[in-house]
Amino acid sequence: MKREKALVVFSGGQDSATCLYWALKRFREVHTITFAYGQKHSLEVAAAKKIAGMAGVDFHLVDIGQIASIGKNSLTDRGMVMDQEKPEHSVPNTFVPGRNLFFLSIAAVYAREKGIFDLVTGVSQTDFSGYPDCRDSFIRSLNVSLNLAMDEQFVIHTPLMWLDKAQTWALADSLGVFGIVRNETLTCYNGIPGDGCGHCPACRLRNAGLHKYLEDRDMALESLGNFNI
Ligand code: ZN
């Protein structure tokens, strides 16, 4: 039986687009919330809006551009050269401090107004680029905090948490949206949609997963059965 309503935190990238279609299978009514946080590529927002339109779901854009001015990172600072690898003792400079904390907190307030208590986010600990706010422990802790903060019973769903990128492609395929996710999403840090520039860290991760998935499609689809998603 489908649950009632869910709000998907939606960036227009591969992961959150897969989550959007995952949510559409499970919830009767799905909404999306997208954040403009001063990212260099506003094309991301355009991709999110287009995909939400294709999926026939509500699209809501929130501008939190101020976070770019208080936390330095190479996704919003045009003067900063992007780390191509994770530095040994720190997070890469593509890390936007507080991003998922802010996104999910604002999403919860917006959801509550709409009578939605199921939130969906595409974070993953598996292909974890060193971002602490993609870890399961952080999401669980924030879930508790949001419930305490608003005296509600939110559930934060993280369907990709334990999937690697190849399995995320398998999930999109099993949902019947492999082509949409491959062609319409924008994951590339250089703002090129679909298969992207091919050399930025986001493209390398995405394309390595795609390559691995296409090499052994059947096995990857089968491995999804091990996850209750
Ligand atoms: Zn790229």
What labels describe this entry?
single chain; 229 residues; alpha/beta; five-stranded parallel β-sheet; 9 helices; 44% helix; 13% strand; globular; binds zinc ion
Largest sheet: 5 strands, parallel
Shape: globular
Largest sheet strand order:
3-2-1-4-5
Q: Tell me the β content.
A: 5-15%
Count of β-strands: 5
List the bound ligands. Answer: zinc ion
Q: Helical segment tally?
A: 9
Q: Round the mean pLDDT to the nearest integer and report it.
A: 88
The string of secondary-structure elements, in order, is: EHEHEHHEHEHHHH
N→C terminal distance: 14 Å
Structural class: alpha/beta
The whole-angstrom Rg is 17 Å
How does this model look, in words?
This protein has 229 residues and is α/β, with parallel strands linked by helices. Helix content is 44%, strand content 13%. The chain is built from 9 helices and 5 strands; from the N terminus they run βαβαβααβαβαααα. Strands 3-2-1-4-5 form a 5-stranded parallel sheet, sandwiched between helices. 38% of the residues are buried. The structure holds zinc ion.
What's the quick description here?
The protein contains 9 helices and 5 strands, in the order E-H-E-H-E-H-H-E-H-E-H-H-H-H. It is an alpha/beta fold and 229 residues long. A 5-stranded parallel β-sheet has the order 3-2-1-4-5, sandwiched between helices.
Write the layout of secondary structure elements.
Elements: E1 3-9, H1 14-26, E2 27-36, H2 43-55, E3 58-63, H3 66-70, H4 99-113, E4 118-120, H5 136-150, E5 155-157, H6 165-174, H7 178-184, H8 201-215, H9 217-223
Parallel strand pairs: 1-2, 1-4, 2-3, 4-5
Helix pairs in contact: 1-6, 6-8, 6-9
The protein binds zinc ion.
